[in-house]
Design goal:
- The complex is a heterodimer.
- Chain A is an alpha/beta fold.
- Helix content of chain A is 33%, strand content 30%.
- Chain A folds into 2 domains: 217 residues, P-loop containing nucleotide triphosphate hydrolases (Rossmann fold, 3-Layer(aba) Sandwich); 63 residues, 2-Layer Sandwich (Alpha-Beta Plaits).
- Chain A has 11 helices and 13 strands.
- The mean pLDDT of chain A is 89.
- Chain B is mostly helical.
- Chain B has one domain.
- In chain B, strands 1-2 form a two-stranded antiparallel ribbon.
- Chain B is globular and about 60 Å long.
- Chain B starts with a helix and ends with a helix.
- Classes of the chains: A alpha/beta, B mainly alpha.
- At the A-B interface, helix 2 and helix 3 of A face helix 1, helix 3 and helix 4 of B.
């Protein structure tokens, strides 16, 4: 069931159209990713959904509420984590949660939230003394303190170290498992691939594709590559004769086979029949990165 | 309502935890008055000041300082810092409007300015027998209008400054002017007459404080000027305040 519906959303700044007819729906209980290069209109789109900006045209509904009209009601049920939003340095973790809790009609239990976000030992620590990862977790906690049914998280893991990123990802999955629908704005492919049930790829103010991460990569190309070092020499024709194989390349002692379908199975059985052992065998598939470049014509990184 | 109470409590805690605002805003004016009063000659009646002692004459100027430090430096810097750090923006994502945060800031800073001024009056009285304001009603009126005018100007700075740095740049100029016209740098009898007359109309209106302190009625035109400045600056800041 759709919990967010966006239809033909348009928002311009002067002459420039930041969102130029954006449409997508988010289903209840999923992690929905919004992916796009910098300046593609991701943040503008999300801000129109959040009611932080007023759209110029189109229809937006979040749990049946119109962000342009029912913003007061929306604030009670929508949690928002903003990019680069800090707290006063001297405000303590526990105080911040207690304060933000008082803004909501039926807030979450701050004690449980603090524990589930791994900030239990930091309750009395001032914001300025927290690490980047801890500040980010507090920011997520503040987005969840109102017990929202939908949470929008913008550039969640930018600036975090690899361990903190992975911890944050686990956390987001826990939040989803607790029944919160999550909209995740990101420009990290690994993050999108790991977390998102479905993704909207936005480019130049338009949605160019909505699909699962696997669906997006399959859409671009079904090509796979198998690499290995053979234990004995063999003619290329041995593999080229297989219907699954499109090309064979040699790279020093390494062989690279490109093809589709059940490529690995086909290559491995032919080699076994010829008593050749394939060392360092690896299968490479088209990544979401490749899919993204194919869809938008540019890499996602800023 | 309970969220405004919580916000005010939170802002008060932050004010008290900041040593700069605490020492400079709350204590420095009193320390200056007590320090100057320790010089014996400043406790002698002087003809320059119409036969009163320097400490008596200077006390209203120290109150100008109390009000100016908090209203023109602390308040705009904190609000601009909140804008810069995204605190206002984060508030916009919650059911509480960031205007509540501004109201909480005003409550805390007005209370601090009151406390600072009260400290000056009490310390002057206890240490050097500086008389309490002789026209208490007039003094209260002058103080309320003066503090409102100064805070309205501080709000105007807070309304537009994008960063804490920008705010402190603008406020420093305003602060120095208010202090100069308020006779903090040079006692007002040493200022050229024209400058002193202009100073009558510069918030918070040191002459109205001095007059009412001495038991006279504060000049109604000067009081009206403070009210007009308060309304104009307050309305302008409300119109242009940037909430993120």
């Amino acid at each position: 069931m759709a919990i967010i519906e966006v239809e033909d959303l348009v928002k311009h700044y002067g002459e420039q159209r930041a969102a130029n007819g954006v449409s997508f729906t988010v289903d209840e209980g999923e992690i929905f990713g919004i992916l796009g290069p910098n300046g593609a209109g991701k943040t503008t789109t999300v801000e129109c959904v959040e009611g932080l900006r007023t759209r110029d045209a189109g229809r937006v509904s979040v749990m049946g509420l119109d962000p342009a009209r029912d913003v007061k009601e929306l604030r009670q049920v929508l949690g928002i984590q903003l990019q680069e939003s800090r707290l006063p340095d001297r405000m303590r973790v526990g105080e911040a949660l207690d304060l933000y809790r008082s803004f909501y009609r039926s807030p979450a239990d701050p004690g449980r939230l603090i524990e589930s976000l791994g900030l239990g030992a930091k309750r009395k620590t001032p914001f300025g003394k927290l690490s980047g990862g801890q500040q980010q977790r507090l920011s997520i906690a503040l987005a969840l303190i109102g017990n929202p049914r939908v949470a929008v998280l913008d550039e969640l893991t930018t600036g975090l170290d690899p361990q903190a990123r992975r911890d944050t990802w686990d956390l987001i999955e826990q939040v989803r498992d607790s029944g919160v629908t999550i909209v995740l704005v990101t420009h990290f492919m690994d993050e999108a691939e790991r977390l998102c049930d479905r993704l909207a790829v936005i480019d130049a103010g338009k949605v160019v594709a909505v699909d699962t991460p696997a669906g997006l990569t399959a859409r671009v190309s079904a090509e796979q590559r198998v690499r290995f070092r053979p234990s004995a020499d063999f003619p290329d024709a041995l593999l080229l004769d297989l219907p699954e194989v499109a090309a064979v390349e040699r790279n020093g002692s390494q062989v690279v086979v490109a093809g589709s379908g059940n490529l690995l199975q086909a290559v491995a059985s032919v080699l076994a029949r010829s008593h050749i052992v394939a060392a360092d065998l690896r299968v490479e598939q088209v990544s979401l990165d490749d899919a993204f470049v194919a869809l938008t014509g540019k890499p996602v990184e800023s | 309502m309970s969220s405004l109470l919580k916000l005010t409590a939170a802002e008060a805690r932050l004010f008290v935890r900041d040593p700069t605002s605490l020492v400079i805003g709350l204590l420095l004016p009193t320390v200056i008055l007590v320090g100057l009063g320790a010089v014996p000659i400043l406790r002698e009646p002087s003809a320059d000041m119409g036969g009163v002692r320097f400490v008596d004459y200077f006390a209203p100027s120290v109150i100008v300082m109390s009000v100016a430090v908090i209203g023109l430096t602390t308040l705009p810097a904190v609000m601009a810092g909140y804008r810069e750090r995204g605190v206002l923006r984060r508030m916009r994502t919650t059911p509480a409007h960031p205007a509540k945060l501004l109201v909480a800031q005003l409550i805390v800073n007005v209370a601090a300015a009151l406390a600072s001024a009260l400290l000056v009056v009490v310390a002057g009285r206890l240490a050097y027998g500086v008389p309490l304001p002789q026209n208490p009603l007039g003094f209260a009126l002058a103080f309320v209008l003066g503090i409102t005018a100064v805070f309205a100007i501080g709000m105007l700075v807070a309304a537009v400054a994008g960063t804490a740095r920008a705010a402190s740049g603008i406020s420093t100029v305003l602060f120095m002017s208010v202090m100069f016209f308020g006779g903090v740098y040079l006692p007002r009898f040493m200022l050229p007459d024209a400058v002193a007359r202009v100073g009558d109309y510069v918030p918070p209106g040191v002459q109205t404080l001095l007059d009412s302190w001495n038991g006279e009625s504060p000049d109604p035109v000067q009081l009206l000027a403070m009210a007009a400045i308060a309304v104009a600056a307050g309305a302008a800041s409300a119109r242009i305040f940037k909430w993120e």
